[in-house]
Design goal:
Blueprint (H helix, E strand, L loop, with lengths): L23 H31 L9 H12 L8 H4 L2 H19 L6 H36 L24 H16 L8 H29 L6 H33 L4 H19 L2 H26 L2 H4 L5
Helix pairs in contact: 1-4, 1-5, 1-10, 4-5, 5-6, 5-7, 7-8, 8-9, 8-10
Amino acid sequence: MAATMVESPPPHLITTIEWSMMDKSKFFPLYTLSSFTVRCALYPLTLVKTQIQVQRKKEAYKGVTDAITKIYQNEGISGLYRGFWLSSFQIISGVFYITTYEGVKHELGKYDISPKVKSFIGGGCASMVGQTVIVPFDVLSQHLMVLGLAKGRPGATRNPKLNPLGLDLDKRLSKAALAREVALRVYRVHGPLGYYRGYAASLAAYVPNSALWWALYTAYQDELLKLSPAWISHLFIQCVAGTLGGFTTTILTNPLDIVRARLQVEGVGSMRQVFKELWREEGLIGLYAKGLSARLAQSACFSFSIILGYETIKRFSVNDEFRTRVRW
């Protein structure tokens, strides 16, 4: 009598690679390299966004394209990377950020909590840790970014809005010397707490942004998986979900990001005072729309690139026992 062959069912495919499934010795170096590459490529959009948010009405730039064109004409490619090396310290906070996010999600996985809620809480906690590490570098970097608005403009040296530290912009300083001068001036003008100027505003802007982005990323991914044919790449679906999440959170949190930028650069007033000032200058539409196109462009590129790098690295770092079950 011939033996009956019974086919075992195919293993369940993994759509979300959890923290415990990865080899951390592969993940961290690859994540750091990916993060630096993305930030390097997209830094000009960050700089343009900050300058548009800080300017009064449209005194310097009419929009993203106008800003990039004028900065390039006046300062060359280096003008688009003003303050980049200080800003690149965000890579350090990024390691703390992603470790906190994955760690919190891993701990919450022990309880019966929906993936969206886990992502929301993990994203919020990650942002609190990341902002605590990066705000001093962010403050210095944004001062350097905004100096580009003042460069070459009559009376800019004495304009407290464009040059709140009173730097002598006619001096020909190297980038390192200028960064050192900014750091010293922040300390002299505001004391040690000056490096955390706008910290509360940063938390108010970035914690909800991060929590919403991760929760929406998870929600959009789940819905797109239901709607998409099986042959569509799961990695592509994740990139689209990340981009949609970025668009949504950018529109919802743009006013908070403008307030944060103003507080960190000008260093005066409270969040409430800055909101009132923006309301007087820009009105309701301006409060939501100021720098929005720059933020949307930055968010779309950043969200897509970060998820592409992050989810690809997770696939390369997954332990061998799970590798065959991971869907690309």
